[in-house]
């Protein structure tokens, strides 16, 4: 009976182990997506910086080639300010993405640890079941040996006596 219970427990633990493994895999995907979001945010920052540098260079070239009025100068400054604002927003997005990546990394590590713990539990149960089976086999073997010994030592019952 106990061996049957151990087999049932192992089946349940195997199901839980598969669930933990699937959870770990899902969390790894979420973590990978968060890492991609960080990379994307960093690329957008670089692209924005290149765009700002290009725009600023063009403005300086225009300023050096001719006289620029106040209104046109303010328009150029407004355009640069808009690029600066956009850069600030992109840096905030990158920071949020990095924080999310850290959260997902922690969750991924926890999911992996849970899966490992389930694996270890299954291994312990399998060892326990093997020991229990060995004890049962030894017990059955001893009973059979005792029975054989009893059969050899019993006096022969004669028919007709």
How would you portray this structure in words?
By secondary structure, the protein is an all-alpha fold. It has a single domain (2-146), classed as Helix Hairpins. It has 2 helices and no strands. It has helices at residues 2-65, 70-153. α1 (2-65) packs antiparallel against α2 (70-153). The longest helix is centred in the C-terminal third of the chain and has 84 residues, at 70-153. It is rod-shaped, with a radius of gyration of 38 Å.
List the helices and strands and how they pair.
Layout: H1 2-65, H2 70-153
Helix pairs in contact: 1-2
Shape: rod-shaped
Percentage of β-strand residues: under 5%
Structural class by sheet pairing and helices: mainly alpha
Count the strands? 0
Rg over CA atoms: 38 Å
The major pleated sheet works out as: none
Provide mean pLDDT, rounded: 86
- CATH topology group: Helix Hairpins
CATH architecture: Orthogonal Bundle
Q: Please report the number of helical segments.
A: 2
Fraction of residues in helix: over 70%
Low-pLDDT residue spans? none
Number of domains: 1
Termini separation (Å)?
45 Å
Secondary-structure element series: HH
